[in-house]
UniProtKB/TrEMBL annotation:
Source organism phylogeny: Bacteria, Bacillati, Bacillota, Bacilli, Bacillales
Protein name in the entry: Holliday junction branch migration complex subunit RuvA
Keywords from the UniProt entry: Cytoplasm, DNA damage, DNA recombination, DNA repair, DNA-binding, Hydrolase
SUPFAM superfamilies listed in its UniProt record: DNA helicase RuvA subunit, C-terminal domain, Nucleic acid-binding proteins, RuvA domain 2-like
Region (Domain III): 152-201
Annotated domain remarks: Has three domains with a flexible linker between the domains II and III and assumes an 'L' shape. Domain III is highly mobile and contacts RuvB.
Amino acid sequence: MIEFIRGSIDYVTPEYVVIDHQGIGYKIHTPNPFSYSKNTQDIVVYTYQHVREDILALYGFQTREEKALFIKLLNVTGIGPKGALAILASGNPTQVIEAIENENETFLVKFPGVGKKTARQIILDLKGKLGDVATHYAPDLFTHDDHDARETSNIALNEALEALKVLGYAEREIKKIVPALMEESLTTDQYIKKALQKLLK
C-alpha cells in the first residue's frame, strides 16, 4: 500500500493528475484534479490503492482525513471508488459528515449516482462512525463523550441485530426496523426488547 506520493504535478486532466516522483509518473484519480496546478513542486498526495481483478488504480487526496472519509464511503453497500470520489468532488466534506449525522437524505441524493436507497444506506452504515474524520472537518459535531457514547450504542445495536438473526428473523425484516432503533441510545437488551416489540406488531 502506498501511503502518499511526494513530487511535482506533471499533468492535469478532468479525471486525474500525473505526479512526477523521481522520474516516474503516477496517474492518480482525485476528487478535484483542477485544484492542483501544473508544475507545482514538492506536493504531497495521500493515496489509496484500489485493486480488483480488472482494475489497479490510485486515488489521491490532499489530506489524510479526506482519504479516511473516502475509505469509509467505500465501505457503504452500493458505493464504489467512482461514487465515493464523486461525493467528495461535489460536496464539502464537512457538509457530507453533517448530512450523515443529521440523517439529511435530501442533501445526500444531490450527489451523482446517489438515490434515496443509497442515501439511506450511507446513513445506516456511517452515522456515528465518523468521529475520527469529523474532528478535522467538523470538530463541534462530536464531543469526546458523545463519540464514545455513540460507539458504545453502535456496538450494542449490532449485538442486538445479531441476536435477532439467531432468533430466526430474516435480514429483510430486521432492516425495516433499524432506522427506528438508530434514533435511540440503549443497551443490547433494551435494543432487543424494542426490536421485538416492533417486529411483533
